[in-house]
Amino acid sequence: MSLASSTVVQRFGSKSQLLRAALLHAWDRLDDATASVVAEASLDAAGVVDLLVALSGEYEANDYADQLMVLREDLRDPVLRARGEAWIATLAAAIEERLTDAPGGANGLGELVVAQWQGSLILWGFTRSDPLPQLVHRSLEALLHRVIVSRV
Questions:
Q1: What single-letter DSSP state applies at residue 42?
Q2: HSE-CB of 77 using CA atoms within 13 angstroms
Q3: Which domains does the chain possess?
Q4: What is the pTM of this model?
Q5: Cα 88 to chain center, whole Å?
Q6: How far is 145 from 40, CA to CA, in rounded Å?
Q7: Which one is predicted more confidently, 128 or 10?
Q8: What is the pLDDT of residue 3?
């Protein structure tokens, strides 16, 4: 099936607007998936690990680099970047809600955990030494154990 460029221009105005619409749709899907996983995760450190392992299920080894190329568009476009910022804030708040027993409270800990999680995804992209869910679980469990000094 081919699509006439005049149809694209009529519907979206430009190629960049088409790309933005597609990526906004992807953000909508990620927001829905995040809300679902957050609703199911227990309100403790183990729930944080479960939540982020579940969200990691979207990553496949062979197309991870392509997904990073798409991230470039999210970082360049202010509307898409705002969606990413809102998603991080939502995720950080859900994490902090589950880490209220951290010494000194959980304020700011959510972003630290999100950064650790995203960093572990990048490391996995290079090493692929373990299945991604196992790597994420181990990485987050180690971090949370050190932060809250209890068994996750």
A1: -
A2: 18
A3: 14-148 (1.10.357.10)
A4: 0.83
A5: 7
A6: 22
A7: 128
A8: 59
| Long-range contacts of residues 107-113, Cβ cutoff 8 Å, at least 24 apart | 109/147, 112/147, 113/48, 113/52, 113/140, 113/143, 113/144
For residue range 33-76, list pLDDT tens digits in order: 999 999 999 999 999 999 999 998 756 666 667 777 778 888 89
Helix (H) or strand (E) holding 92: helix 78-98
Q: What's the CA gap between 54 and 75, in Å, rounded?
A: 24
Amino acid identity, position 142: A
Contact 31, 21 (CB under 8 A): no
Residues sharing a CB contact under 8 Å with residue 121, sequence separation 6 or more, in sequence order: 56, 59, 64, 132, 136
